[in-house]
Design a protein that fits this description.
The protein is an alpha+beta fold. Helix content is 35%, strand content 27%. The protein has two domains: 3-149, 2-Layer Sandwich (Beta-Lactamase), CATH 3.30.450; 156-387, PPM-type phosphatase domain (Phosphatase 2c, domain 1, 4-Layer Sandwich), CATH 3.60.40.
Length: 393
């Protein structure tokens, strides 16, 4: 085993044995001992994906870095290892993406005495990925990393919705996807979910009625019911039926959840769809954006024992699908003008060269810019899916 391989092996064992809140200390020790690093920071992306927040003993005790205008932000956005001169032109600062299976967590930043070799960069990148996996596990047992992501306090409804998410990105050879919620710190009833297996990718976008805690409770019940049915091995039509029954049993038709369910057959690109409400699907193919229309069915929980019917369409290699809630396509600016499909189409085209996770964030950013930095009047969800050729031909 190489020297760097020995270093990574030791770091992995130490990370797994360390206290959940002490992961950064292990990485700092490894980088100081094996790479002569003099300063090491972990920067985690905030909920809005606008800032990289330093992990410190107490939240908000160090200055965050804007993602749009810093080298660390560019490394996060592009998901590439980047180098920049050290403070006072001493040494080199290396910026390493901390990402787990397509879910972008942040950046590991280290000051080194000299430019690392390619082998050293590979070892450092592997250490950052290793740290990412340990962060996901550690979040079960400590609030440190969740606190570090917050630029402000979350509302209780937002706390519930963020904890309900599977992540903000996922990547496999066949596809990559990313999602974003806004307003990030006060989100109420909108949510998204996904699950992958060898045969299928299942994606759900939901828009619950109302605002605040009542909307969050409603959506939580809907997502939990859909997961319960999915994990029982049922198809998406039966998933919708059982979730519909659960919501109607609880609310008697007074509350409902507009929901889009999609199940992608990985081997063929055939997609089954249940369109039970307001979320819309737009396809970017060969430079053209097209709204994919389905037979509209009733939102979940509106009536007792609704019968849901699955529809189908085909995705091709190179397709990008963008799923948006009505808080995006029907949003209104402070002037009263509707954001509309024209602006949405333009945002999709403008972000077409970005990876799926970054494109979802960019589309939300365009929506926020349209609102002139005022609060959105409704929750907004964007989920972006890039479909690759599973056979490689």
């Amino acid at each position: 085993m190489t020297r760097h391989g020995d270093s990574l092996g030791r770091a992995e064992k130490t990370l797994r044995a360390s206290a959940p809140h002490a992961l950064l200390e292990v990485v700092q020790s490894t980088l100081a001992t094996d790479f002569a690093a003099t300063a090491v920071e972990l920067l985690l992306a905030d909920y809005r994906l606008s800032m990289l927040q330093p992990v410190t003993e107490l939240p908000h005790t160090a200055t965050p870095l804007p993602i749009r205008t810093t080298t660390a932000g560019r490394a996060f956005t592009a998901q590439h290892v980047l180098l920049e001169p050290g403070p006072d032109a001493e040494g080199i600062v290396i910026l390493l993406p901390v990402t787990v299976r397509g879910d972008r967590l942040g950046i590991l930043r280290a000051q080194l005495p000299a430019t690392p070799t390619d082998d050293e960069q590979d070892a450092l990148a592997a250490l950052a990925t290793m740290l990412g996996h340990e962060l996901i596990v550690a979040e079960r047992d400590t609030d440190l990393y969740l606190q570090a992501r917050r630029r402000e306090r979350l509302s209780l409804a937002a706390e519930m919705q963020w904890q309900l998410l599977p992540g903000r990105g996922c990547a496999r050879a066949e596809y990559s996807l990313g999602g974003q919620l806004e307003p990030a710190y006060t989100i109420g009833g909108d949510n998204f979910d996904w699950s992958t297996s060898a045969e299928y990718l299942t994606v759900t976008v939901s828009n619950g009625m109302g605002q605040g805690i009542e909307a969050a409770l409603l959506t939580n019940l809907a997502i939990s019911a859909l997961r319960n049915a999915r994990r029982a091995g049922l198809d998406i039509a039966d998933q919708a039926c059982l979730a519909d029954q659960a919501l109607y049993a609880q609310y008697g038709g007074t509350q409902h959840v507009a929901t889009l369910l999609m199940r992608f057959e990985v081997a063929s690109g055939r997609v089954g769809v249940i369109d039970a409400g307001s979320p819309r699907v737009l396809r970017l193919r060969d430079g053209l954006v097209e709204l994919i229309e389905f037979e509209a069915q009733l939102p979940l929980g509106m009536f007792d024992s609704t019968d849901y019917r699955e529809q189908f369409f085909q995705v091709e290699p190179g397709d990008r699908l963008v799923i948006v809630s009505d808080g995006v396509h029907a949003a209104q600016a402070p002037t009263g003008s509707e954001y509309g499909m024209t602006n949405l189409d333009l945002a999709i085209l403008t972000s077409s060269n970005l990876p799926a996770s970054e494109a979802a964030r960019a589309i939300i950013t365009e929506l926020l810019d349209y609102h002139e930095d005022t609060d959105l009047l409704d929750d907004a969800v964007v989920v972006c899916i890039d479909w690759n050729n599973p056979r490689g031909d």
